[in-house]
Amino acid sequence: MELENARFLSKLLSPWALFLVLSSLSFIEAYDSLDPNGNITIKWDIMSWTPYGYVAVVTMYNYQQFRHIEAPGWQLSWTWAKKEVIWSMAGALATEQGDCSKFKGNVPHSCKRDPTVVDLLPGAPHYMQIANCCKAGAISTINQDPANAASSFQLSVALAGNSNKTVKVPKNFILKAPGPGYTCGPAKIVESTKFVNGRRVTLALMTWSLTCTYSQFLAQKTPSCCVSLSSFYNDTFVDCPTCSCGCQNSNTKHRNCVKGDSPHLRSILNGPTKYSYTPLVQCTSHMCPIRVHWHAMLNNKDYWRVKITIINLNYRMNYTQWNLAVQHPNFDNLTTFYGLNYKPLTAAGSAINDIAMLWGVKYDDLLMTAGPHGNVQAEILFRKDSNTHTFDKGWAFPRRVYFNGDNCVMPPPDAYPWVPNEELL
Asked: Locate the COBRA C-terminal domain: which residues (predicted)?
């Protein structure tokens, strides 16, 4: 859709005007009223000086309310300001050593001018670990699992200077999770971090900090999820809009699809792209890896019930610690939820509790790959408010739905199941 809009605008506007319009569109896409302050903050704390440089602990804090980083996890890269090298690491490793031929005897861990660092896997040797490391690059949301909403590693840097006056801040930080989507600002020297250990407080010798914000448009050119609807009061099943996440006839190489009963499915999954993280989705009219189905299932005098089904149509991806963010006006009267954890959220500038973050309880927090077990279900019971409750004009259905932080494509409002005879409800 964005590309179609761009082509249309290009016929009407001058190149400079088009640039300004598209820049503003990208900015709007990066801002989300459901999580306006969401970001990943990276702190680089120098803990000690060495004869040739320093030892630092780098920590990524996920301050996003409903977007986490799943395995294979984060990748962090930067460009050194001088001729620094990574002498040693704990809790992570640099993916390339680079050219260390000028060093005799002991060789640095990485001599790359622009190193890329990844987290260690669980079960790494104890001497290579530090706190908050070794989770395959996974970082939880601050709401879902605060204890695992950070990831850290330690590095010893040489040829860097060994004082506040001689050390230079690295540049061009790039965070991938594991693909694109995050844009990082420049690292700036800030007030030194305080570390509390019992009754003793210590300070980092020097700290610099930067923030990285997420844009769904930068991460993928097409959406990754869509919403379908149904109700007890109307036999109409409203499927996801056609081509919500791409079309079967599209030439876009990442829009691979396969029929669920294809005899070639197993060979495709075990073929040359076995370890690819490019979605391989079940062929549908909407071509989305994830479909969220909202069913208004039951109604009585004081309460009404909703059933939510999340269906994984991606043959290559298990979704661990999945979550939904849903906007609906009746969340201020939520009574009971089954198979879910719940936390209320508030949109920017709003005092109304109409947004919920939902995620699975233990054993229901893993959404398996496409197939017979590739779905999870949960139910929500709402209490009716006589002043606002109605089933008319699609009121029973959500206004917005996010899966793992991605905004899902909703059906058009005029397609929602309407009440045949409102007096019956």
From this structure: 224-417
State how far the Cα of 122 lies from the Cα of 184, in Å rounded to an integer: 27
Q: Report how far residue 234's alpha carbon sits from residue 425's, in angstroms, rounded to the nearest whole number.
A: 12
- Domain membership of residue 100 (yes or no) is yes
Distance CA 206, CA 209 (A): 10
Residues 114 and 231 in one domain: no
Number of domains in the chain: 2
Q: Are 328 and 294 in contact (CB under 8 A)?
A: no
Mean pLDDT score, 364-382: 92
Q: Within this chain, do residues 60 and 160 fall inside the same structural domain, yes or no?
A: yes
According to DSSP, the β-strands at 256-258 and 280-282 are: parallel
Other Cβ atoms less than 10 A from the Cβ of 380: the count is 25
Residue ending a domain, choose from 193, 218, 243 = 218
Nearest 5°: phi and psi at 424?
Answer: -75, -15
Task: Give the pairing type, strands 188-190 and 150-158.
Answer: unpaired
Q: What is the CB-side half-sphere exposure of residue 100 using CA atoms within 13 A? A: 20
Cα–Cα nearest to 73, from 156, 31, 144, 132: 132
- Written as six digits, the tokens of 155 are 């590095």
Please say whether the beta carbons of 51 and 112 come within 8 A. Answer: no
**Residue 82 covered by a domain:** yes
Q: Which of 174, 198, 218 is the last residue in one of the domains?
A: 218
pLDDT tens column, 222-265: 899 999 999 999 999 999 999 999 998 755 444 578 887 777 78
66 in any annotated domain = yes
Q: For tokens 């079940």, what's the residue?
A: 282
Same domain, 281 and 187: no
Its pTM stands at 0.85
As a whole number of angstroms, the distance between CA 199 and CA 63 comes to 27
Question: Do 46 and 136 fall into the same domain?
Answer: yes
Burial (CB count <10 Å: 0-12, 13-18, 19+), residue 357: buried
Does residue 4 have a pLDDT over 60? Answer: no
Could you list the residue range(s) of the whole structural domain that residue 106 is in?
40-218
